[in-house]
Amino acid sequence: MSWALESLAAIKRIILLEDRIxxxxxxxxxxxxxxxxLDRRLIRLEAKFELLERMATPGRRSLPGKSEx
Length: 69
Hints:
Elements: H1 3-56
């Protein structure tokens, strides 16, 4: 194989690698957006459950095991 064909093949591989990197970068951006969305949704769910727990036992402020008078 001549040096011209080898260099042409190397350039082709570089272009293919750049295309793959671009595709992976776009996919990772989409995954990052999805993770952010899931994180926000989880925070909202945690807040709702915390609110429900506080509303279910509004008068209880003592430590467990202590007798109330």
